[in-house]
Amino acid sequence: MRRKLFTCIMALFLGVLPGFAQIINPTRWSSSIEKRGDDLYALTLKATIQPGWVIYSMFTPEGGPLKAELTIAEAATGQVELPGAPVEKEPGRKFDDIFKVEVLYFAGEYEVTREVRVIDPGLSAIHAAISFQACEEQCVNLTEEFEFKITPAGNDGKTMTGGETTTGGGDDNLWLFFWLAFGSGLLAVIMPCVFPMIPMTVSFFMHGDASRARARSKALFFSLSIVAIYTALGLLVSFLLGPGFINWLSTHWFPNIFFFAIFILFAVSFFGAFEIVLPAWLVNKSDRQADRGGYAGAFFMAFTLVLVSFSCTAPIVGTVLVEAARGSVLRPVIGMLGFSLAVALPFGFFAFFPSRLGALPKSGGWLNTVKVVLGFIEVALGFKFLMVADQTYHWGLLDREIYIAIWIALFLLMGIYLMGKMKFRHDSDLPYIGVGRLTMIIITFTFVIYLIPGMFGAPLKALAGYLPPQESIDFDINRIVRENVKTFSGTATTTPAPVKNATGKVKYADFLHLPHGLDGYFDYDQALAVARAENKPLFIDFTGHGCANCREMENVVWADPRVLKVLREDFIVLALYVDDKTKLPEEEHYVSEYDGKKKNTLGKKNTDFQVKKFNSNAQPNYILLDSRHGDDVDLAPHLLAPPRGHNLDRDAFLEFLQGAVKEYKRRE
Known about the structure:
This protein is 47% helix and 15% strand. The chain is an alpha+beta fold. The chain folds into four domains: 29-169, Immunoglobulin-like (Sandwich); 172-363, no CATH class; 397-492, no CATH class; 497-666, Glutaredoxin. Helix 3 (171-189) packs antiparallel against helix 9 (310-325), helix 11 (365-393) runs antiparallel to helix 12 (400-418) and helix 12 runs antiparallel to helix 13. 37% of the residues are buried.
């Protein structure tokens, strides 16, 4: 009686405990429809996201968290067509140490627009659904559905719960990109085509006017003209590409291969094989306009500078624009603004303080050295684009060790070049090595030494965003050692779990795996049968392929030897992936009693099971279950401990497991 009372109290407690047993939805959605043509409509979905939570963009790279997915029901029946791609507002960007990719996310507010062309003249409504993952300390997978009424006037469709919205999470990243572009502009200043023009140009302004104030005014206008010209280029790129095309650039193999080729072309130009120049007539015409004097002459002199320096600045400008075009329509403008401010800064500075011109280093062979070093870096960065295409389409061209070997070769050659042991076409003789060059040599060879362990499985965390995933390496010493230790210790098995009491082969084990070599199951019924046969409690891990917090728990908490020991010896481990897209056999399809929707994939089945049995939709969610229960609809009374989510306290997690084992034995 006392035990039954205890379990009932626990069930009641779990039913009201915030964050454990409840359906979580940190978003509020609204929708609208806009008529853009005779048969063309724009469907817009907006979400207000609770503070601390994020939604992952539908353009997040493969291998990252679960990305948003927008589906239009009528598209499957041919009643509508979907021209172009969905367009999201500017996402935030950050490198994720768990997934080893740059993730695109939204905080505060999410908005996506999808154009739809109506083919069926009798269609009265369009039905859309957006599936997404929202994460904080835990992750939840959710789906929101919308109905858009089609009217001749193109009125708004159904509007769901409203509310005020906050700004998105991309501002910090735009500022970061601005400063990166600014740094690129400073590099452009010390290129051979730009640096020698600083004293020449400033001297022209200071001696061309009797009034020093007027000369400074024109020099300032000259600097602002440089900013205006480059920023106009950024505006032109934004106008020509547009947001839909920019999204395509980020996700398709063709632009990535194209950008790779462009970077290699820029590098070859820097190495001195050829110069990227504009037609001579264009440069001459601008130069003649500069001779007119006045402010118009100052503007055309700035334009002439941009044209003349094109052979040096084009690769850098191109690099900035390529990186910008892979983001949003704002990035080309922000990038060119930052770049041009850095280029214009020395001209304005020395025009106001001409006495400082003498402090500038003299032109010489060091300028060409800067070009060549940038050439090596361009090649290294160019391979990142080839890597994206290779990983996305599984070509198998750039495994991790091949990619790292290319980088080692590149930076080793760069170090040898800096030592003067290798010369390019426009290089001068190197009579001695100065302190600055020696510092660069030390940095370069230190970087090469840092890369070498990566050939054998070292994680190289500082470069994770630029390298292929760890799993693509063939010769991983850490993995080999773990496997050999397992073999020699007699713990190696040929199946993911003991099957002496199981019904047969471990279901889904051909494509699903547990971390750290743990044995386990991926189907509830099968795992429950084994747990009953082994007389062990059931450890249920509601997880997802795209759940960053799940991977963090596995890498930090599960990796603790004490935790692994308890999981191996005292539990039957069951991992239920809520986002797996594997289609279930036709005979296993069913309509959920919870939401009345058809469940036809493994992920949908597991999500439905989590919601129905445990009144939760969060991941990670760890359930410790007494396997000796009957086939009750309500499993809450059979829990051995309150469910647990994302918490990196390893000692607390160990107590969570050990307490459940004690409770399991106490109930016998």
